[in-house]
Amino acid sequence: MTTVIENDQKSGRLEVGTPLLEVKDLHVEFHTRDGVAKAVNGVNYSVAAGETLAVLGESGSGKSVTAQTIMGILDMPPGKVTQGEILYRGQDMLKMGNEERRKIRGQKIAMIFQDALSSLNPVLSVGYQLGEMFRVHQGASKKEAKEKAIELMDRVRIPAARQRVGDYPHQFSGGMRQRIMIAMALSLEPDLIIADEPTTALDVTVQAQVMDLLAELQAEYNMGLILITHDLGVVADVADKIAVMYAGRIVETAPVHELYANPAHPYTKGLLRSIPRLDQKGQELYAIKGLPPNLLKVPTGCAFNPRCDVATDLCRTETPELHHVTDKDGKELTGRRSACHLWKETLHG
Ligand SMILES: Nc1ncnc2c1ncn2[C@@H]1O[C@H](COP(=O)(O)OP(=O)(O)OP(=O)(O)O)[C@@H](O)[C@H]1O
Ligand SMILES: [Mg+2]
Questions:
Q1: Could you tell me if 76 and 172 lie in one domain?
Q2: Which residues does residue 75 pair with via DSSP β-bridges, in sequence order?
Q3: 140 lies in a domain?
Q4: Residue 296: which domain range?
Q5: What secondary structure letter does DSSP report for 278?
Q6: pTM score, two decimals?
Q7: φ/ψ (deg, to 5) at 54
Q8: To test ligand 1's pocket by mutation, which of 26, 30, 234, 249 has the most ligand atoms within 8 angstroms of CB?
């Protein structure tokens, strides 16, 4: 009992802006029969308390592998971290022992996956699964754990929580199951939630509801949120900043509204042009030409160059670094970076 109360009192919400997670020059490879696939090839991003970072990019760009590496759930082998740091409140998690790492995972950093049905145990009631956190981590009794489970179900607005606490996962709709996943992630009051495509499997209206709920809880608890998605439309309202990934690298980062208004990378520009818009009904939808590269054979120079409309010889030979960009007067734009040789033309042209 005391431990449960302690945890309630703890409610150690971090002050908005406290640095939580910093990923520095992360490299992850997969050794396959056909060769070495560089799935993550120098990723840099950070998130602070009360902040939402959206990580955006086409399928295979390395979004999930980065997240799995942060959580320490990457399959090794075949996966291997070859370089980089993952700092959680200043401490490199890659250098921590298993025990220390386990304490952070789940309690400090929680993850929400796309597919709730396969993440929940089908033969245990949702109340039991939600309560497990409190029984295992805080030594709560069965009765206390059940009350906690009901509280959490209320918190994520599952109607008639008290009546439904004994129901099984398949008795809930997809949207409700995803709320249960959010409740699980919240149960130990983490500082940071990583949500990997949390609404992809849901229909559009339910998507918006679940996303709004996540954003609301994140703000209330001052949590950091990393929202992984390939859908630019979903993140516009909830994210503070965006990191765009391509072939295992971050190619652009920016505050969300600046990125939408004025991208500094041709890939971002292409992604923005390919969002369906109501005011352009009837017009053919733009699609970036070509396909993302085979990670066993990433093009030399800028990995995006074969698909880029403005690529030059330099782009075909030299890999552009992710560097700060400036406004027309040469003043550095806060929080904005681009890995494009032609960022100036892209941003100001
Ligand atoms: N266990 C594994 N073994 C070999 N390659 C892997 C493994 N897991 C991931 N990869 C490769 O790493 C690359 C990055 O995958 P990742 O899952 O991070 O992409 P993603 O950006 O999350 O894409 P999506 O939008 O489809 O979820 C892919 O090319 C994938 O095939
Ligand atoms: Mg993924």
A1: yes
A2: none
A3: no
A4: 269-276+286-348
A5: G
A6: 0.90
A7: -95, 130
A8: 30
